[in-house]
Amino acid sequence: MGTGDVTNGLAARYSAAFAVYLADRSELALGAAYDLGREAVKAQLSVLDVADAHHSAMRDVRAGDDATLSAAADFLRESLSTFETVHRGYIEVQEVARLEHEYVQQLRALADASVAINSSLTVEAILQLTADTARGVVHAGRATIAILAQDPRHRPLTATSPPRLSDGDAHPARISAHLTGRGKELGVLEVVDEHHRVFSARDEAILTQLAQLASVAITNAQLYERERTIARTLQRSLRPGALPPVHGLSAAVRFRPAGEGIELGGDFYDLFAAGDGAWTALIGDVQGKGPDAAAVTALARHTMRAAAAYESRPSGVLRLLHKALRDQTGDEGRFCTVCYAHLRVGWGEVELDLACGGHPLPLVVHPNGRVTPVGQLGTLLGSDIEPQLTDVTVTLGHGQVLVLYTDGVTEVRRRRQEVFGHRELVALLETCAGLPPDAVAERVETAVLAASEGRLRDDVAILAFGPTPQPKETDG
Fold first, then answer.
1. Most CB atoms closer than 10 Å: which of 168, 169, 190, 209?
2. Could you tell me which residues are beta bridge partners of residue 268?
3. pTM score above 0.85
4. Mean pLDDT by groups of 10 residues along the chain of 476 residues
5. Domain architecture of the chain: domains with CATH
């Protein structure tokens, strides 16, 4: 049946029902108008179609008295009541859809914020991201977040969005959510808007979720910062920092910890007076990372400093260190490699006794660009096997530089392929002829960082030294 037939059929039934109502004026007869309206809605006819049917019925009746017109208005109103109900339902559905869409958008913004906030390592960045998200997710005028500083002597940390707040209402609408971490209150997140704004329960729920998310991120960031501070403090305590001045000796050091510095590495170096005018230079590497490796590093440095006061033979000092490692670590298997040199600094030359316990042999850069290893390979310290250690005497003359290094220099890998190893180090040192120790160490560090693209997988330590050039004598 076509639309025209449906409309004509409705018009005919409308006229008949209308005539009955005019004669009866009962509620039952008026109910027919409601049924006709439902029929029109079901047939997907419009209000105009019903109006045309009503107009046709009025024309058939040909009555113009007030009572008839009033009855006609009642009949039309009843027939259109279904349309009104449907329209209200449509509006309500639209409103529900709008609210659901807004909620989905809020959840999506919250998810995006979660990724950004949890990717931030600093508390300050987390606070600003949280304030920006809070303002945007509930469409408020401004948002403020404040947390207590870890040090009670410092002022609370705050962030606002927008960063510069203008004067607003004297009594703005506001909602807030508390931030908590590890059972303690961290601070509060608050959003404010114009005084006539009414925040919904959904706004409060979203803000609470954001506050919980920020609380976890802030707590983690504070823990990370605390651990990083501890790690840096321990790293500084395990390294002597700047080398002491030694008359007649030019020395330089470069040290780069791997990663973010949150995990303690095992590379160390030292240069200190050993008594009777002699000096000790050493470089070492402890297996592993973390607190256990740091403990072994401290044990190694302090043992060698103590032993150097009464033992001048490098092999003797390293054997004492081996025994200390075995006694201290037992069966835990903490190993250590060390290159140890006992220096006697003279006029224009440095004579040294050298022993290597499982450590790469140092390299001498000669004035003509030739690079040669010196010393004799020894075995690892701290293992079950008694170490094989050999003292070798080396004399450094004018223009010669001795380079000690850890395996972080010669084991630079990228995508599982070695990009800077022993061969590359030798080739680089061959270009350093005539350079002072500081320039040599600088070149090595720069090359390693470039090869690793700034992402070191292991600590890098470089210690270079040689005799200080003597001024030329002039005829007086």
1. 190
2. 284
3. no
4. 67 79 79 78 77 76 72 79 74 65 66 71 84 85 86 81 66 88 86 87 85 85 77 66 91 83 72 91 87 82 92 95 82 81 94 96 96 95 92 96 95 80 95 96 94 84 92 56
5. 3-92 (no CATH), 120-233 (3.30.450.40), 241-467 (3.60.40.10)
